[in-house]
Specification:
Strand content: under 5%
Order of helices and strands: HEHHHEHHEEHHHHHHEEHHHH
Structural class: mainly alpha
């Protein structure tokens, strides 16, 4: 399945639509006000008819997609074919590292207007930087100078002295981005290639960032998307990012986050699944979205590896969501109704996240003989042998 998905995307040179590419066409240049930008972007994103050809929006290849895919391929690097794929994608991603004012970081290749921020394609953001940096580090495609540039750029432009920020101009605490920054900073500090003072600054920033987001966890175990008015929703894929990055950062920093991690995982499994089908929002029903679905598979594999659910649950989640992804040999065409076909063919939002989930699940299944026995399953979730 992973091979089919890779070949499908690679045949298209990892180029395709993106949910947030609505401002890249000619109309995007005319949308000079926030409300116009948001309306245009959301119209293109949500339309069940692909408006891109009519609006002059061309397919994109994003470094975020190739970076995430590089890391996914690196998990299978024992195979020469997968190793070559990982290196090729890693080198392509490394070539997109920014120079000049924001040297060392990565950006999206399109302007974005959200309900809380606007950031043009000319500036970096923490999510793109993290996925790209991890892919390059996983494949060994960043030299020492590039790693040092990345570390300095991360602290200079994406850290405000208290937490990691989504963009250089943002002052909003977005928990998944903050913990991505903490995980990346702690990883860079442990490379052994940085000057000692720079490594220490990264570790200090990462520790403080983890403390900020741990303090932001709610009593029920959830994290809001961000701190601030109208930003307090809880959704599946951002919660998944929080849990993964919290664990990564804490392990590298030797911090004990067992309690918040366990409470967060139990909340995620209890509130963001309906059986084996992922929920998009914790307070709503299921809504099919390729990134959310792929992250659910990734998180189910992660939870199985740590004994929260049986491995069979992760496989069942994959079976429940695989029908809309391209080139997986299912009976249902990619993006079939109800839904947006272009959304499911997005390299950044669909193909790369699922490839990451598939290789992670393979790694868990291939070692299931040594996996821990499942812990007591949260209410409403399957116990060992139930799936």
């Amino acid at each position: 399945m992973a091979d089919d998905l890779f070949r499908w995307a690679d045949a298209r040179t990892w180029t395709g639509p993106d949910p947030y590419d609505g401002l890249t066409g000619p109309l995007g240049r005319l949308a000079v006000y926030r409300v116009l930008r948001q309306a245009l972007l959301q119209t293109v994103k949500r339309s069940t008819i692909d408006l891109r050809p009519f609006l002059g929006i061309r397919p994109l290849r994003t470094a975020t997609a190739t970076g995430m895919a590089a890391g996914a391929c690196a998990r299978l690097a024992a195979s020469p074919e997968w190793r070559d794929r990982a290196l090729r994608l890693g080198r392509r991603t490394a070539a997109e590292q920014m120079s000049g004012r924001y040297a060392g970081l990565w950006r999206y290749e399109f302007d974005v207007q959200t309900r809380w921020s606007y950031y043009p394609a000319s500036v970096p953001n923490l999510v793109a930087t993290t996925f790209c940096a991890d892919g390059c580090l996983d494949t060994g495609t960043l030299g020492d100078e590039a790693v040092c540039s990345l570390a300095r750029g991360l602290l200079t432009h994406l850290h405000n002295g208290v937490f990691f920020t989504y963009t250089p101009t943002s002052d909003v605490l977005v928990h998944n981005a903050n913990l991505m920054g903490a995980a990346l900073a702690s990883r860079l500090a442990r490379t052994g290639t940085l000057p000692g003072d720079l490594a220490h600054r990264l570790l200090d920033a990462a520790r403080r960032a983890v403390e900020v987001s741990v303090d932001g966890q709610r009593p029920d175990g959830s994290w809001p998307y961000a701190r601030g008015p109208r930003l307090e929703w809880v959704d599946g894929f951002h919660t998944g990012y929080v849990l993964l990055r919290l664990e990564q950062a804490a392990a590298r920093l030797n911090l004990d986050v067992e309690d918040p991690l366990e409470r967060g995982t139990r909340y995620y499994l209890r509130s963001l699944f309906e059986g084996t089908l992922p929920r998009y929002f914790a307070d709503g029903g299921t809504r099919r979205d390729p990134n959310n679905d792929a992250t659910a598979v990734r998180m189910a594999a992660w939870a199985a590896e740590r004994g929260f659910v049986p491995t069979g649950f992760a496989s069942a989640v994959l079976a429940a969501v695989a029908d809309r992804y391209p080139s997986l040999g299912t009976d249902t065409p990619a993006g079939s109704a109800p839904g947006n076909r272009a959304l499911w063919e997005s390299p950044r939002w669909s193909t790369a996240p699922l490839l990451d989930a598939l290789t992670a699940l393979y790694a868990v299944v291939s070692t299931r003989g040594t996996a821990p026995e499942p812990r007591r399953a949260p209410e409403g979730q399957p116990r060992a042998g139930a799936v």
